Amino acid sequence: MMKLLRSAPVIALAAAILAATVQGLPAAAQSGAPPKSKSSPPARVAAKTEIIVTNFSTYESPAEVEQAFRKEFGLYGTVVAIKIPTDAPPRRSRGYASITMATLAEAQAAVDAMDGAEYLGRDLKVALKR
Prior knowledge:
About 40% of the residues lie in helices and about 20% in strands. By secondary structure, it is of the alpha+beta class. The protein has a domain of about 90 residues: 2-Layer Sandwich (Alpha-Beta Plaits). The strands form two sheets. A four-stranded antiparallel beta sheet has the order 2-3-1-6, with helices on one face. The longest helix is centred in the N-terminal third of the chain and has 16 residues. The chain is elongated, with a radius of gyration of 27 Å.
């Protein structure tokens, strides 16, 4: 075990090193506050542009569903991403998808137009993600 050195010169040296280290940090770090990020909005804001589509056939491949949804939902704005969860080996869709649109207005327009639309003999259920 180390002996604790409590002499005045050692304590003064440690205090000087600590002060120099803290002075080189931004003000937020000196106060102990977590740094603020300006790079991206909170996840809740982005989720409002996300659409959930349910009640479509699981017999069509996820790639075919994605292609059809990009085409149809693209009529109402920019489709940023489409996620279609699949089951393991057969790689069939589970019958629901998540579509992210560029803006809330585009997402709402797509929901208004596509809710109840027929796709392969089934009525789609389309809503904004909560």
